[in-house]
Amino acid sequence: MRKLFLSLLLTAVAFSCMAQETGAADIGTSTVNTGKSIHSDGVDDVLQYTPLAATIALKLFGLESKSEWGNLLINTTTTYANTAIISYMLKHSVNSTRPDGTDNHSFPSAHTAIAFAGATILAKEYGHISPWITVGGYTIAAVTAADRVRRNRHRWIDVATGAAIGIATTELGYYIGGLVLPDNKQYSLSVSPTCLNLVVKL
User: Fold this and answer.
1) Is the pLDDT assigned to residue 151 strictly greater than 70?
2) Please, what is the Cα angle at 50 between 83 and 167, to 5 degrees?
3) Comparing 19 with 93, which gets the higher pLDDT?
4) Are the C-beta atoms of 100 and 108 separated by less than 8 Å?
5) Degrees (nearest 5) of the Cα angle 47, 17, 60?
6) d(CA 24, CA 37)
7) Do the beta carbons of residue 2 and residue 129 sit within 8 Å?
8) To which H or E segment does residue 131 belong?
9) In 10 A of CB 179, how many CB atoms?
10) Which of 57, 45, 42, 44 is nearest to 11 (CA)?
């Protein structure tokens, strides 16, 4: 069963990479004074959430993760809250103009921060099962970052900083989550398509 899930994840990585190339052909481009193409946002809007979606999907399919549902919810919520806050504050304080000239919110890349946060969550939860799961998550995050540069939405420093933010906020999110809800196995939270069950051991 684990090999099946791993195969599905690797297939998703390959499909995402192919979708990048297919999507690029359908996206209109224009040129600014620098002569460099401008690419509008596209498939990377979806790719940024793929590692997190993979984590949730694997959990729903019953593959045992490091965290219970409650811990995973708190860790993820805290991670993405910090990611959003830090990215927003930097974007509106640094005021770096995008390479395509559309606005002055280039630094850092929030798409990249979100993608790497999801990849780090995936690695933390399922990296113990297979290193290829970790490789798959970070590959998708790296493709997202590279595509932001290719689309002329960011510079390499923007996506590198975004990646660092995503990884750092995940570590912080798990630390805070551990303080709020220690993983002491005194409760069990299960999710199914029809119900949500919470069992607390007294």
Assistant:
1) yes
2) 35
3) 93
4) no
5) 50
6) 12
7) yes
8) helix 131-150
9) 10
10) 57
Rounded to whole angstroms, how far apart are CA atoms 143 and 44? 8
**Does residue 148 contact residue 111 with C-beta atoms inside 8 Å?**
yes
Q: Report the C-alpha gap between 92 and 104 in whole angstroms.
A: 8
**181-191 core/surface letters (b: 16 or more CB in 10 A; e: else):** beeeeeeeeee
- Distance, CA of 194 to CA of 16 (rounded, Å): 30
Structure confidence by residue, pLDDT tens digits, 39-88 = 556 788 899 999 999 999 999 999 989 999 999 999 999 999 999 999 99
Element (H, E) at 136: helix 131-150
| Torsion angles phi and psi, residue 48, rounded to 5 | -60, -25
Residues 135 and 192: their CA atoms lie apart, in Å, by 28
What whole-number distance in Å separates Cα of residue 151 and Cα of residue 173?
30
**Integer Cα distance of 88 and 109 in angstroms:** 10
Residue whose C-alpha is closest to residue 179's, from 107, 104, 74: 74
Q: Supply the pTM of this predicted model.
A: 0.74
End-to-end CA, the chain:
34
pLDDT in tens, 153-201: 999 999 999 999 999 999 999 999 989 887 655 555 555 556 555 555 5
Question: Helix, strand, or coil here: 199?
Answer: strand
Q: For residues 189 and 198, is the Cβ–Cβ distance under 8 A?
A: yes
Token match 């995936």: residue? Answer: 122
